Amino acid sequence: MKTKIRKKGVISLAVITVEHLSKNFKVKLKEKGLKGSIKSIIKPNYKIIKAVKDISFNIEKGEMVAFIGPNGAGKSTSIKMMTGILYPDKGEIRILGLDPKTQRKKLAYEIGCVFGQKEQLWTHLTPYDNFKFFGAIYDLPSSHVEKKIQEFIELFELEDFINTPVRNLSLGQRIRCEIVASLIHEPKVLFLDEPTIGLDPVVKENIRVLIKRMNKEYKTTVVLTSHDVSDIEKLCKRVIIVNKGQIVLDDSMENLKYHYLNKKIVEAKMKEAVNLEDQEGITILKDKGYNLKMEVDIKKKSIADAIKLLNPDNIVDINISNIPLEQIISSIYKDGEQE
Amino acid sequence: MRKYFYILKSELMSNLQYAFDILVGFISYCILIFIFLNLWKYIYADPTELINGYNMNQMIWYVIITEILWMSLGGRKLCKKICNDVKSGNIAYNINKPYNYVEYALFNHMGLVIIRFILVGLLGLILGIVFLHSFPSLTILEILGVLLSCLLATIINIMLVTSIGLISFFIEDANPFFWLYSKMILVIGTIFPIEFFPAVLQPIIKFSPIYVVSYGPAKLFVNFTMTNWTQIMIAQGIYLVISFLICHGIYYKGVKKLNVNGG
Predict the structure, then answer these.
(1) Do residue A244 and residue A266 come from a single domain?
(2) Which pick of A17, A25, A115, A285 has the fewest CB atoms within 10 Å?
(3) What is the pLDDT, as a whole number, of residue A337?
(4) 3-state DSSP helix/strand/coil percent for chain A, to nearest 5?
(5) Averaged over B72-78, what is the pLDDT?
(6) Are B258 and A85 inside 8 Å of each other by CB?
(7) Does A105 contact B98 at a Cβ distance shorter than 8 Å?
(8) A88 assigned to some structural domain
(9) Residue A237, class by beta-carbon neighbours within 10 Å (0-12 exposed, 13-18 middle, 19+ buried)?
């Protein structure tokens, strides 16, 4: 089922292979006002939007990959093509050796999807009835479904609300059930599209723990889309960043941090105001007299040298921190915009 | 097939919670039947008199049955749902499941139709028996024959309405097409039997969906003959295949044009 990929002399077992994938959308344009409405009926104008432009990547078994990008970057379109929902215009996709375009139904048995913004559960039914329903549509024997439900009740702590209609569940409980529903047929690949959207920090953390546990227990390959940097940081070891339909970065989380962590943020509270200006290796981010915030490029200037500029005797309090991952990612997004 | 019956069962379980709400919607059914009851009582000076081969009781039972079929169908709801699914991109979340969307829509909607058919059917039978003090003389086998025809009529109707809804893949709004279809069924198919129309129109109506989704089962209920039953079954069989092919054809052509917006 898996595709053998030879890349730079290394043979890897990829469960997801995407090669030169492209997708365009035809969008109807309408000029403003009534005149524009009439004109669009008589002579409609269309605009071609290049949602995905020639992207290629591989994902191996058991990997947890963040597939991220700003709104309209083409990430969800790519995921929808990988899951067989949308047809690519160009390129090849293989998920566990299957072509989503022509083997969609067969593929559906092998993958699971959770779309945080869309409910797939039947709201008037209980989670238990829902799981039985999903078991049936995946052609699983009733006894097997029963066994899986019991297993998931324990793993995802569903005991308290397993018999409560879904419409009466909290968002966090519902998302937990959505994940279970997508796991009932033991998919080998799981696509999570913003699974923690709208959840409070405690519930978000619970969901992350459960996703991690699931990855560990079942060796499920996970492709995660999220705007929440903590999701990405805490769950994924690899990041693929897409912007304007193209991959702008495909690297390990470790490398991503390493390359960008040569910059530190120094925040200092001073006894007396310091008049410091931008110089090589130092960028002043905020200067309010007694409070100073600067970015130090440690490749060009050491932290010790930067502190010396402030005069250590003048410092009341100091905080040295890494650039938040969120900032790193948004700067990559911005770089993509400029290109 | 097991999964499709499970879809039907789940929809049935979901809708059972709203059985009372459905019943409230049937007030209009009672009013309609009451109007036709008075209309036909006025037209028929003598209830045993035959107009185009129907006596008064048969005419009223005809309307009761065609209205049961139409009201239990919930066609507007189905068309609106399919249109919304296509336009909003919600259909996408059904596409990546291991079932066929058309069959899913059929069995899903059958879950609603079954409850409606039982409720409005009981209501119609009670109204008929109370006001007419009579019931067409049918054997158990003949009743089963009529029920089979009603089932096929409903399936064909669902397939045709789903096809109309799926036109949304190609045009902005398919609801006006449903409006035309529903008015055609209501005006030509439910109020008068085909025999009441001019001779020149009758062959056209007999070839139209009206014959299989409305006239056929009602005609069998008021005047069951084996010849009629066989003819109607053959027509329903042909229409079932045609509507199935049309629906799947539109779906497969349309799904390639699917445009899912927003994240």
Answers:
(1) no
(2) A285
(3) 57
(4) 35, 35, 30
(5) 91
(6) yes
(7) yes
(8) yes
(9) exposed
Q: Is there a domain that residue B165 lies in?
A: yes
Question: Residue B242 pLDDT > 90, yes or no?
Answer: yes
ipTM score assigned to the predicted complex: 0.78
Q: Are residues A162 and A299 in the same domain?
A: no
Q: Is residue A73 part of a domain?
A: yes
**Residue A66 is assigned to a structural domain of this protein:** yes
Of B6, B17, B96, the CB nearest to A108: B96
Domain count, chain A: 2
User: Which pLDDT band holds residue A8 (cuts at 50, 70, 90)?
Assistant: very low
Give the tens place of pLDDT for each residue, A173-197. Answer: 888 898 889 888 889 999 988 888 8
Is the domain of A64 the same as that of A166? yes
A68, closest residue in chain B (CA to CA): B263
Of B2, B95, B99, the CB nearest to A85: B95
B185 in any annotated domain: yes
Same domain, A137 and A218: yes
- Taking CB atoms and an 8 Å cutoff, what residues of chain B touch A87? 256, 258
The answer to whether position A291 is within a domain reads: yes
Number of folded domains in chain B? Answer: 1
Q: Is B28 within 8 Å of B4 (Cβ atoms)?
A: no
Domain with A142 in it: what CATH number?
3.40.50.300
Q: Which H helix or E strand runs over A205?
A: helix A201-218
* B6, B95, B96: best to mutate for the A interface, most A CBs within 10 A: B96
Of B77, B103, B67, B83, nearest to B21 by C-alpha is B77
How many CB atoms neighbour CB A204 within 10 A? 21
A126 CB neighbours in chain B (<8 A) are none
A189 lies in the same domain as A150:
yes
Q: How far apart are CA B242 and CA B226, in angstroms?
A: 24
Residues of B in contact with A25 (CB under 8 A): 259
Tell me which H or E stretch contains B117. Answer: helix B101-132
A83 touches chain B (CB under 8 A): yes
Which residues in chain A have Cβ-Cβ distances shorter than 8 Å to B13?
124-125, 129
A225 & A275 share domain = no
Per-residue pLDDT tens over the stretch B166-222 = 999 888 788 899 999 999 998 888 888 999 899 999 999 989 999 999 999 999 999
DSSP strand pairing (A315-322 vs A10-29): unpaired
| A208 and A277 both lie in a single domain | no
Max Cα separation, chain B?
68
Q: What's the gap in Å between the CA of B160 and the closest CA on chain A?
A: 24
Q: Are residues A71 and A137 in the same domain?
A: yes
Q: For A130, which residue in chain B has the nearest alpha carbon?
A: B10
Give the domain range for residue B103: 2-255
